[in-house]
Specification:
Blueprint (H helix, E strand, L loop, with lengths): L4 H6 L5 E3 L8 H9 L4 E4 L5 H14 L4 E6 L5 H10 L4 E5 L7 H6 L3 E6 L2 H10 L4 E4 L5 E2 L5 H11 L4 E4 L5 H9 L4 E4 L13 H9 L5 E4 L7 E4 L2 H9 L2 E5 L2 E6 L2 E5 L2
Parallel strand pairs: 1-9, 2-3, 3-4, 4-5, 5-6, 6-8, 8-9
Antiparallel strand pairs: 7-11, 10-11, 12-13, 13-14
Length: 268
């Protein structure tokens, strides 16, 4: 059995965290990962406070082991969610899409361990100074919104930059990936995509089948031109957007599409 400092810090058996994937990481998946000895994580995504509280209660009915909540800091309900996490005394919180500094004192007072997801050494140093207990260094191989640096380049630099534990994420799906990032100085891993195909994951089977059938070249980064790169499966709509450089702007009465042929509007 592999045990590292992160296991003692979070009260888990194995140094494996499940990623907080919006509309995916719910009570069913989080409780299953926690029951198996890792750290299951509920995605707060754009939930309001009471929606999150309901999911926390469901999770507690399904596991007695530690679990966490992932907070998307750009959510309009971030304040509500932060308060619910403190009120419910959630053991661990991970954060993304922003700077968690304003919430750290609140969560510290509640006894919550704080682990921000970071894409750079500068942000890792900053959250360490603010009181983070660990960081998740997430490379561009990860699914969803990604940063610029690859996992193998980012992780060792973050390990050298901070004294708190570093958890690696991005493109890790098995023991070989875990062994590799341990050699780089990480003390744990976070996996997201790997858990999509778990029995306890409630996404549609068609989605799971696409993940299982995907080959090494079947993902693509979109949104780089706009500064918001996202890794996703290559599908027909994604290929069109990527090839034509189309940008979407939502208006009240429709979606304006900008591409090589100028602008047109279609009803939303």
């Amino acid at each position: 059995m592999i045990k590292t400092d992160i296991c003692d810090l979070l009260g888990i058996e194995y140094p494996v965290l499940q990623g907080g994937m919006a509309w995916v990481s719910n009570a069913s998946l989080a409780s299953a990962v926690s029951n198996a000895g890792g750290l299951g994580i509920i995605a707060a995504m754009n939930s309001n406070g009471e929606q999150l509280r309901s999911e926390i209660q469901k999770t507690r009915e399904m596991t007695a082991k530690p679990f966490g909540v992932n907070v998307m800091l750009m959510s309009p309900f971030a304040e509500e969610v932060a308060s619910v996490i403190a009120e419910e005394k959630i053991p661990v919180v991970t954060t993304g899409a922003g700077n968690p500094s304003r919430f750290i004192p609140l969560w510290k007072d509640a006894g919550t361990k704080i682990i921000p997801v970071i894409p750079s050494c500068a942000l890792a140093r900053m959250v360490e100074k603010r009181g983070a207990d660990a960081v998740i260094a997430e490379g561009s191989e990860s699914g969803g919104h990604v940063g610029e640096l690859t996992t193998m380049a980012l992780v060792p630099q973050v390990c050298d930059a901070v004294k708190i534990p570093v958890i690696a994420a991005g493109g890790i799906a098995d023991g070989r990936g875990m062994a590799a990032v341990f050699m780089l100085g990480a003390v744990g891993i976070q996996m997201g995509t790997r858990f999509l195909v778990a029995r306890e994951c409630t996404i549609h089977q068609n989605y799971k089948n696409k993940i299982l059938a995907a080959k090494d070249i079947d993902t693509i980064l979109t949104g780089k031109r706009l500064g918001h790169p996202v890794r996703c499966l290559k599908k027909s709509g994604v290929k069109i957007i990527t090839r034509k450089g189309i940008r979407y702007h939502r208006f009240k009465r429709g979606t304006r599409i900008y591409g090589n042929r100028g602008a047109q509007t279609r009803g939303s």
